[in-house]
């Protein structure tokens, strides 16, 4: 890998005071950005510059900065989590950009993810979907049995684990031309439907989660497959198919 | 709960989209087989087939199912598109969808609308003429008798001659009722049925000196649109119905792409053949 160097970039960032305000794209020049810095560090650098200029810093979501919490979002140059595949925004580095580049940074765009401020969106719609059925009811009165006591076929366990890798970041919704949340819901439905512990409530779960998804105002899946490509965790479209199957089965019951 | 879920929910709309779409794929295959007779068969066989397709009760049921599927597929598509547009009130200033999805998959609504327009014009040009046009000609053949050329109707009554000349027909005590039925006037008995000459109408349509070329080109263009629609639609229907399996999906996708190329290609060859090569 070539040694780090400093680049000068132009940023076009969505600025919006609050949920009700009308936002717009604003342009910022940022010089001496190290290509060794991460994308979020670059934004930190911009904010420092803005604070020094006595301007409002750009609000953006972040937490773990190691690709597992699902907090960071950002639609970078027309792609969710930026140009890399299989990574979150916090895992994106400035070495992916060149001197003189113009970088567009926008929030996730979805009716169900309203902008809170600047690049921060409210993703609690995902929480409500999860609350509608994304759990297994267990009696926790003290006589719980070891989960490993129930045999699970390796194949199913692997598929469930892959589905459970979903961090709920919302890139699928952001990138879908229909603003559909079906990859997220598909992953959450699959994660439980594949395991014996989850089968007990499978019927109600899929009906309730899909109903909640529709109520939140997400769009409808048209199988473009964009979500699968942009998902930082590589959640497969097979999970949407599994949800479709589960739902059909549940509806006919 | 379950019942309303199968009608209203987002997933239900996908199921209906998929089912009607796949049924329409079957229809395309059947329609293509019929059309290919324009190249590989003669006018008589084609017109016989056309009569069968407009009179057989089983075909009638299938045709109503087809009309319903087209209308429902279109209506459901419009509804889904409307909801999908509503799901993103503010779009992106910069978007790069070609990095993660195919042209076909992103433009199903536009492609579908174009196909709907094509279907309507296509039905006006052929289906409506076949069903409702009072001037739809009956198929005739020319027979040379003693150095004289005479036209006769081709009818279901094989072997019997029904002269195409109105006065001669009258002399024989025959008249045509309901546009195709030959009746013995005196006995009030139906003798035979003539064949509407859909073959002649079709050939004339694409060979028309003024509009034949435009019609042919428009038809070919419509088949391109259909190919793009099927390119995504065929395999998408299986995914919507929940059929995604590492063992079968590659085959479904491969078959779908072959179907998307071959079926519109064969459809398009027919008017090209009629316009440029048919004598």
From TrEMBL, chain A:
Domain 4Fe-4S ferredoxin-type: 157-187
InterPro entries associated with the record: 2Fe-2S_ferredoxin-like_sf (IPR036010), 2Fe2S_fd_BS (IPR006058), 4Fe4S_Fe-S-bd (IPR017896), Beta-grasp_dom_sf (IPR012675), Helical_ferredxn (IPR009051), SDH/FRD_Iron-Sulfur (IPR050573), Succ_DH/fum_Rdtase_N (IPR025192)
UniProt keyword terms in alphabetical order: Coiled coil
Cofactor: [3Fe-4S] cluster; [2Fe-2S] cluster
Taxonomic superkingdom: Bacteria
Coiled coil: 11-56
Family to which the UniProt record says this protein belongs: Belongs to the succinate dehydrogenase/fumarate reductase iron-sulfur protein family.
PANTHER family, sorted: SUCCINATE DEHYDROGENASE (PTHR11921:SF41), SUCCINATE DEHYDROGENASE IRON-SULFUR PROTEIN (PTHR11921)
Name under which the protein is recorded: Succinate dehydrogenase/fumarate reductase iron-sulfur subunit
Organism the protein comes from: Flavobacterium sedimenticola
UniProtKB/TrEMBL annotation, chain B:
Keywords: Membrane, Transmembrane, Transmembrane helix
Record-linked InterPro entries: Cytochrome_b-558, SQR/QFR_C/D
Residue spans crossing the bilayer: 106-128, 211-234, 255-278
Name assigned to this protein: Succinate dehydrogenase cytochrome b subunit
Species classification: Bacteria, Pseudomonadati, Bacteroidota, Flavobacteriia, Flavobacteriales
